[in-house]
Specification:
Length: 469
């Protein structure tokens, strides 16, 4: 419910009806915070017209302005504008049969091949069953791949009509299960395509004016890990204190996005209890809720789950369950992982990021130090978790929710506990920071996290900055 709706409901509860201009006046004066003062002054009128308001305001204007009115954060004055583009209820029912996995992959192929067909060289791509000797353009999913002793790649390409072997000696690295287009030459006697060029679905550079007129910002964090012994309580509380103050850069923040791993969970890895300060997962969420419920009511909090949270690990993950949701007040919105939302017209794609581990392991040149490169690859592949059967289980659904159909303006991940920002073809890429210091496991792996940083995207200037706590 928006602030506007809550104000109207509160007024109606007291039998008060107001002109639209009067409603604007209430919002400008502080919204819900101003409501009791407004009701005290005007409640006896029943219907508050602009004339009644004007006569009172004129009297008031002669008085000095109260200090508290001068310090209201800008974010108070604007309504939320949030649209959810992936229905969180559409991804919970799974049966898990082989057929369901087959339809998941068919759906992935269909949607990614449609994107590839928009490229001129694939307008009239050939079905594998119709291949003839000579130049060809084919779209397929990579079934298997191996590197030859001379450094070339041999792979099998599959489409709904058949499979074909391909030989490629170029620079591109390819992964199993990704959908690509190849241009090359088919030899029927050897039943092979000699590939000259590999093309990913990719994106066209985003070139639209996204700036909005209101001075509104979105704060972005991830991986809070409440309950862990290494949860950075003091830095977290300093961040919330700043957010609640509505000052020193926090005045425009109207949304807070949390990209999963809200809590450390239980039983996520062997002997995890040794690393836990709070061993009851419900208690962990209660602690988080007590923090979030203290935030000013003009801040909308958007929450998706991660692999430490209390939902299935298989992706896409449904939103946190109702028993957790009810611990939070109405300002928190619980969505799926991944999710796509529009905030004042900006399209946000938010994914916890489990597949980033796969890319670090499989793709040469990608490491935890340059996770932005992995995010670029996901954008080019138009898929959030391209490799099946590695570390990220997929839920067998008839639709592949990990396909990136619509180009985002902002792509957010977390999970790897680094902090990375890059701009790629006009898209803001952010791997959001964590609130957990180095764990024993990370120490063993010689991995240093980058905690306590809050990314702030100003929707008015289209600029991303950050603040460290
Ligand atoms: Fe995490």
């Amino acid at each position: 419910m928006t602030q506007r709706e809550r104000i109207i409901n509160a007024l109606l509860d007291r039998g008060i009806v107001v002109d639209p201009d009067v409603l604007e006046h209430i919002i400008k004066r502080g919204g819900l915070d101003y409501l009791s003062e407004f009701i005290e002054k005007y409640g006896s009128h029943g219907f508050v017209s602009t004339e009644i308001l004007d006569s009172e305001v004129k009297k008031e204007e002669k008085k000095p302005v109260e200090k508290s009115d001068m310090t209201k954060p800008e974010a108070y004055e604007h309504d939320w504008d949030l649209q959810i583009l992936i229905d969180p209820n559409s991804l919970s029912s799974i049966k898990g049969t082989v057929d369901d996995f087959a339809s998941l992959f068919q759906n992935r192929f269909k949607r990614l091949s449609t994107l590839l067909r928009r490229r001129p060289q694939f307008h009239s791509a050939t079905d594998i069953k119709d291949l003839r000797d000579g130049p060809v353009a084919v779209i397929g999913m990579i079934l298997d791949r191996r590197t030859t002793s001379t450094g070339k790649i041999i792979f099998t390409l599959e489409d709904p009509t058949g499979t074909v072997r391909c030989l490629y000696g170029g620079e591109s690295f390819i992964l199993n299960d990704e959908v690509i287009g190849v241009v090359g030459s088919y030899n029927s006697s050897r039943d092979i395509i000699y590939v000259d060029e590999i093309t990913r679905p990719g994106i066209s550079p985003v070139n639209r004016n996204r700036k909005i007129s209101e001075p509104i910002s979105v704060a972005i964090i991830s991986d809070v890990h409440i309950g862990s012994k290494t949860f950075l309580k003091e830095r977290w509380e300093n961040f919330l204190k700043w957010l609640k103050s509505g000052k020193n850069g926090a005045e425009g923040i109207k949304y807070l996005i949390i990209g999963g791993d809200l809590v450390d969970g239980i039983g996520v890895y062997p002997n995890q209890e040794r690393d836990l300060k709070v061993t009851d997962i419900f208690k962990q969420y209660e602690i988080l809720a007590s923090y979030i419920n203290e935030l000013p009511d003009y801040i909308k909090v958007i929450i998706i789950p991660g692999n430490h949270d209390i939902v299935r690990v298989a992706e896409p993950q449904p939103p946190l369950p109702k028993e957790i949701e009810k611990m939070f007040n109405g300002n928190a919105t619980f969505l799926s992982n991944p999710t796509a939302i529009s905030i004042h017209g900006y399209r946000f794609l938010i994914y916890h990021g489990a597949s980033l581990n796969n890319l670090v392991e499989l793709v040469p040149g990608i490491s935890y130090e340059n996770v932005g490169e992995a995010m670029k690859l996901l954008i080019d592949m138009r898929h959030l978790s391209p490799v099946y059967g590695e570390k990220v289980p997929l839920a067998p659904l008839p639709r592949d929710f990990l396909v990136i159909d619509t180009q985002p303006d902002v792509f957010i991940t977390g999970h790897v506990h680094t902090f990375t920002y890059a701009k790629y073809k006009g898209i803001h890429l952010l791997n959001a920071s964590t609130w957990q210091s180095q764990t024993l496991y990370q120490k063993m792996m010689n991995f240093k996290p980058d905690p306590g940083k809050v990314a702030i995207l100003n929707l008015h200037t289209d600029r991303m900055t950050y603040r460290e706590f």
